[in-house]
Amino acid sequence: MIFYFTGTGNSLYAASRIAEDQGDRIFSIAKLMDLKKDVYHYELEKDELLGFVFPVFAWAPPKIVLDFAEKLEISTKPGTDGKSEGVGGKPYVFSLCTCGDEEGRTSQVLRKVLAKRGLDLDGAFSLRMPNNYIIGFDVDSKEVAAGKLKAAELLLSEIGKAIGRRQRGIDLTIPGKFPGLKTALINPMFNRFAVSTKSFHVDDTCTGCGICERICPVHTITITGDEKPVWGKDCTQCLGCVNRCPVRAIQMGKGTDRKGRYCHPDLDRLERQLDDQVTE
Ligand SMILES: Cc1cc2nc3c(=O)[nH]c(=O)nc-3n(C[C@H](O)[C@H](O)[C@H](O)COP(=O)(O)O)c2cc1C
Ligand code: SF4
Ligand code: SF4
Fold first, then answer.
1. DSSP letters along 241-274, please?
2. What is the reported pLDDT for 257?
3. Is 250 in the pocket of ligand 3 (CB under 6 A)?
4. 263 lines ligand 3 (CB under 6 A)
5. Closest residue by CA, ligand 1 atom 28
6. What residues have CB less than 8 Å from 259, skipping those under 6 apart?
7. Residue ranges of the chain with pLDDT lower than 70?
8. Structural domain boundaries in the chain
9. Ligand 1, closest atom to CA 9?
10. CATH class of 2-187
11. Beta bridge partners of 200
12. Which residue's CA is minimally distant from atom 2 of ligand 1?
C-alpha cells in the first residue's frame, strides 16, 4: 500500500514506478483527506509494505502528508502460520521524497510522526527530480531536467530493489548542507509566512478551461461567473495550479510571468490511468 502526494507529477511518477515493481497499488493522500476522517485505518496483508511518496516543501514533508500520517492506524493480518510480517508484527515502511536538490531532514520529520503511530521508518530515500518551485528560483533548464529524469530512472530501479528485499535501516537521503537548520528553522517560517493563496492572481490570457480548479488537491480554487479562478484560503503550496495552467496565466506575486513552468511528462497519462481504476 503506497500513499502519495503530488503537485506536478514527479512524486506520482515515482510512486507508480515503485508500485509497478512491487506489484502494489497507490493511493492519493489528497483524495483520502477529502474524506475528512478522524482516523485512517488499514489492515495490511502479512508481507504487504507501507510506503509514502511525496515532494519536499522547504526541507520538510508537505503539511497534508504529515496530517495524514498523524491519523494513520495500521494493522497487519497474520499469515497462515499465525505470525505477522516484520519486527514485532510491524510492516516494512519506506518513504521516498522527491526534491529539486536536497531534502534537509524531511525523512526524519516523517519518521517522528510515524513513530507516534507505532510505525518504524525502515527505508528512507530521496530522489532528485526537476524543480517545480519558481519563487526566488526558476525551473531547471531542459537539459538539467532531462538529466535528472534519466538519473531518476536508474535510482528508482535501485530503490525498488532495496524495497523488494525489505532492507531495513537503509538511509539513501540527500540532506544537503545545514539540513537541521533548514528543517528546524526555515521550514516553520515557510509554513507561517509563505503558505498562502494571497499572492496568486490570474492574467488576461486565462481561457477559463477549469484545469486549475480540477487539479487543486485542497479544492481551494473556484471558477467564477466571469470564468476566471478565485482562490480560497486553504493551500498546500504545491504549485500545481501555477505549473499546470496550459497558458501560464497564473502568477504568484511579481516575476513569475518571466519564469518557466514544469510538469512531469507522464502526469496526464498517469492521472487518466488512476481515473480508470476508480471507475472499473
Ligand atoms: C513549496 C515548494 C517548496 C519546495 N522546497 C524544496 C526544497 O526544500 N528542496 C528541494 O530540493 N526542492 C524543493 N522543492 C521542489 C520540489 O520538491 C520538487 O520539484 C518535487 O519533485 C516536486 O514534486 P511533485 O511534482 O510530485 O509535486 C519545492 C517545491 C515547492 C512547490
Ligand atoms: S488553468 Fe489557467 S487557463 Fe485554465 S482556468 Fe485556470 S488559470 Fe484559466
Ligand atoms: S491553490 Fe494552487 S498551490 Fe495551493 S494547493 Fe491548490 S493547486 Fe496547490
1. HHHH-TT--EEESSSGGGS-----TTHHHHHHHH
2. 93
3. no
4. no
5. 57
6. 134, 138, 139
7. 79-89, 277-280
8. 2-187, 195-258
9. 25
10. alpha beta
11. 252
12. 57
